[in-house]
Amino acid sequence: MANYGMIIDLKNCVGCAGCDIACKTENNLDHDVHWSFHITETTGVFPNVGYRYIPKLCNHCENASCVKVCPTQAMYKDENGLTLHDPDKCIGCRSCELACPYNCISFNEDVQHQHQWQMDTEPLLEGITSSGKEIAEKFDNVPFPNYNPDRAKTYDGVRRKGIVEKCTLCDHRILDGKDPWCVVSCPADARIFGDFDDPKSEVSILLAENSAFQLLKSKGTKPKVYYINEF
Amino acid sequence: MNDLRKDPDYPLYRPILESDRRFYWAVGFLSVIILWALVMYIRQLIYGLEVTGLNNTVSWGFYIINFVFFIGISHAGTLISAILRLSQAEWRRPITRMAEVITAIVLIIGGLHPILDLGRPDRVLNVFLYGRLQSPLLWDVTAIGLYFTASTVYLYVPMIPDIALLRDRTNTKLKWLYTFLSWGYQGTERQKHILNRAITILMVAVIPIAVSVHTVISYIFSMTLQSGWHSTIFGPYFVTGAIFSGTATLLVVMIAFRKLFHLENYLKEIHFQYMGMLLLVFSLFWTYFTFSEFLTGVYGNEPQEMDVILYKFTGPYAPYFWTMVVCNFLIPVVVLSFKKLKTIPGILFASFAVIIGMWLERLTIIIPSLANPRLPIISAPYIPSMTEWALFAGGIAVFCLLFLIFAKIFPIISIWEIKEGREEGLDEAKERLDSYLPDIIVSEEEAT
Questions:
Q1: Would you say domain B17-416 falls under CATH 1.20.1630.10?
Q2: Nearest-CA distance from B115 to chain A in Å?
């Protein structure tokens, strides 16, 4: 029993998108599917400009609108406060995608689990380089060259098509008492994972000490990803 | 057979008894379109929703637009027929059957549309196995299921006397079907009484069901937190729009069958004048709702709401939005307000405009909200693919085909109700009118 969430320290974040890549490799994500992503905002006119870079992942909201609209109870809140998804019940109606105010849910519509470049038949330089397709064939068309077997502990290693999928806060790693992979792989320690129910956890202390904000707080979804130290 | 030809209502039997080459041509042509749609759908089953233009931000597209559109059209029928029967409008008699058929057919087509949109249509029964009461989609399945049951029964029950007539008076290959479906109806006093009771109960029950269906459909949208959707007005707005598009479809169907089956004697100018009046009223209702909806949004001026509104007013969806306003407001109001323009071709034009306009309304409700996510995410534009167009064409073709087949098997205008109108309606109407008017009191002096 816990109430897992995350704090993102924007002072530390360097905007490298390393978390996005880490998530892709850890969870064997298809192209066009993003569990961890970022939003950017540029404001002003040169030379007075502002730039925001905000990493974004599923907020595992306490009042999750995706859970409410799901007609088959495929989307559910587990006992650790995570918003998880049952791939056996999902009918792929995509209601959760519209209900989520953060656009954090992706639909897995890809057929061959192949990246665009793997299907590319034109070589970059005629007669000099091989085409993407040729390279892929050399490697026996493995869908994920860097396939991570750990992912298969709680979900299909490569997820099924025709249904939605989303960030699970690396529930397979949480089972072993490890932090999510995006947290571990962040080069700047910007992501801090922990249990908000435990008053002594790092996230609880950071939340108490800092003035934090949440994305679209006014929507009343009670997101559990907090952002601190924006400058 | 020969005495049937002398029947004044023979034109109503004619399409059933006489074969027409054009009928088979139409069936063939429509079948080709349906086959094309079927092939495209099988292709979608094999390759997944990748063959559509949907993406992760615009995750609902043509299928849901058409779903809302078709279910909207289904409102014409049952609701209008029930209201006309309930108010004892005598001019309803040649119209009710067609209206009810529209509902039954379009509900089948509309009801199947969400399944086209599913990533895993094979699991559709999970909605019943693991249904979540809080989900608007489950409400939808329930409401549409109930509506379909109610409106099919409501179509079938008033048809029983006609089926019995066909059983007794015709001798076609389908006699066994008429015998089976007429349930031994002989037209005795008791049977007539039970039939009229059943129709009365059904027409009262069907009205709240019909209203609830489109309200619930609007809830799929208004229950989410999307800007442009999260609005209290959506329930009645959708119901109004539904009746509006349904009336227009009914008018088109009436004009088409009038021409095809030579029913000028049954569907007279006056029927179109009255139905046109209904269309005009709903056009004004729709305009009023649209105005209220957008005025609230613009006045509030919330940035996210304004993103969606400007996307419709001046952005990429402006052509569709303003065409919708012209089709749903300008054309019907102008055509139907002036006596000179309110001819049958004029009404046909206005009806087509309304059907197109209402489809565009569904489009401009669904896509712009999805294309403007609340967080600054760049969304890929939604361009419907050939598959989606094919299935749209297929849906319309199925509608026409089922309608033609229905008209080939059953009379498209209720024969017994026309007869009843001739035999009893006149006296009844006179009696009713007499009861409205002040009684003439003759004083004793004058009497003597």
A1: yes
A2: 8
